[in-house]
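Why should sequence recovery work at all? Because a backbone constrains its sequence more than one might expect. Tight turns favour small or flexible residues, buried strands favour hydrophobic ones, and helices have their own preferences. The token representation captures these environments compactly. In the example below, the structure is given first.
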């Protein structure tokens, strides 16, 4: 009787080892020096997705549940898609002016500093020299 129950839930140690191997693969994929970071990102996200599926299917027992889990999941998916749509006017569509006064001040300060640097490089000082060395 216990054998039937154990086989129903799968081998947790094998799943644990698979998660460890996948974690090692994602670390190796991140550590190796690939020129294209998009490939590394794709590999790491694919491994993370596989690990999430292992956890959901076996440790959360979703593999062994009936189809009623989809009925419970549907409202969550609808809300998850609805929240970004509801926030789109505030966050996604920039009807606010992005140019704030603080940014203008910073730009003017940087322009003044750049002009001073160029004047120093040209040998011209903007400060009057009164002969006292100040």
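From this structural description, the recovered sequence reads:
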């Amino acid at each position: 009787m216990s054998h039937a129950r154990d086989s129903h839930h799968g081998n947790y140690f094998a799943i644990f080892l698979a998660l460890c191997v996948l974690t090692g693969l994602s670390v190796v994929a991140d550590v190796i020096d690939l020129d294209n970071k998009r490939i590394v990102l794709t590999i790491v996200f694919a491994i993370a997705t596989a690990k999430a599926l292992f956890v959901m299917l076996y440790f959360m027992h979703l593999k062994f549940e009936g189809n009623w889990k989809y009925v419970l999941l549907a409202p969550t998916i609808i809300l998850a898609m609805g929240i970004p749509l509801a926030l789109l006017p505030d966050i996604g569509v920039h009807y606010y002016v992005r140019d704030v006064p603080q940014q203008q001040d910073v730009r003017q300060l940087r322009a003044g500093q750049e002009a001073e640097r160029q004047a120093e490089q040209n040998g011209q000082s903007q400060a009057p020299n009164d002969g006292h060395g100040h």
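A few observations help interpret the result. The radius of gyration is 30 Å.
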